[in-house]
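I'll show an entry:

:::
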Amino acid sequence: MSDGVISFNKICGRLCVEMTGHLASPLSIGSGEEEHSDSDVVFRASGEPYIPGSSLAGALLEYSAAIKGEEETKKMFGMPRGGVPGSRDDRQSRIFVYDARIGQAEVGIRDGVKLNEDKTASHMGKYELQFVERNAPIKIRIEMIEREDCIEKAKSEITGRERTEEIEQVWDRERQWIYLWLKGFESGELRLGARSRRGFGKIAIDHARVKVFDMRKSDSYKEWLDWDWEQADAFEGAGSETIRIEDLEQAGGAGREHCLEVLLRISGTLLVRTYAVAFTRTEDIPDYGQMTVGGHGKQAVIPGSSWAGAFRSHLVKTVQELLRQPDWKEAQKILNPLFGTWGDTEMRNQELHASGLIFEETVIDGGHGLPVARIAVDRFTGGTVQGALYEEIPWTGGEIILPIRWRKNGLNLTDDEICGLLLWAVKDLQAGILAVGGETSVGRGIFEPVHGKDNLFLDGDVLTDEEQKRCMQAAVLWVKGNRKKENTR
């Protein structure tokens, strides 16, 4: 090193972590292109979908700040915009987040439509979304850099121990970040991509491996330069570790959300349509059928958006009846903090709210497709309409667990009020009054409780009748109190 170069806060260690798992739900990372749908997935030049490092880093930063606080998170991810350049507080991020690799994956297109008050399609309300199907393998790689000031801080914290433990203490502190992220993925509180509040972007991590390099050793730089993520023995030997699931107990975080779980059974047939087959019509493919994983017809799914739409529509009507409020749009405004701002050209000037509820995409356990041929009948002649024969495959049988999540203290409602509002819809869902999906007018989409089992859980515990009554009463008081506030404005 020349005399004119000043060494300041040099790198003294690196920690490399690789998380291996799979997509536990569909994933949508938009590229900004609209070649195949209204929102296309981002692909590599070689044709494989992936998660850009910037998207992954943003999700990790937001989650970390919520748990550890902004000041602590700045030390890892760097100063945000607005910091003073060149000052001692001006920090470059000391974490490198690589593009997350997605292995062999199915890419599909889902269509959706926005419904109006009459449960018919709104004008220009049709949309299509490209996504990566669940179960695709994923690999996340992160590199954390240690500098001299980290070691100096460790020195000041060590009392009565050898200085050789300085770097080990730093590694232990860095592992807490890894445990935090792993626990966030495991709990479902840390999600990636778009539509994460409607069940997308959930990652299941199977295991994590760590490799540390102590750059204070004379041969460490050469070892690091010769090391490669792709080597078969990359995470073997000195400085290597596999993180066990029980290690997650050491992490903070998780538990930021409440989760209401509802056990349901399909009492008849269900039809959440998918029209993807319409573009590849052949004699052995129906006109449309129940949405299934990968479109293979083996595992039926109900999207989170379908659940959210059914709950919101039903609760709006309940609020209207409770307040004797005929104005549908005003009733929508009351529920905006829970479900997000209702998109309407007449409401664009109001304050926007993101949805405070997370409706998981549910996979139906059991059941099977039931091919049905139907015709349209002329109401005057009683005969069939020419060319009106069509085929469909609804789903019959099977059980589901519907999880609905919300952030603790994240809304201007108490937990009892939120739970009570949801229970209004859940009770009608269990009673067969609230139907989900298409063709509900002919009896499809009706559910019932699973007999012989507890059917309602809050944070893993059975929700008792007394607790249910308390929550629903709290919801009534909140809705009526909200109406009074509106009247005094």
Observations:
- Residues 1-7, 276-282 have pLDDT under 50 and may be disordered.
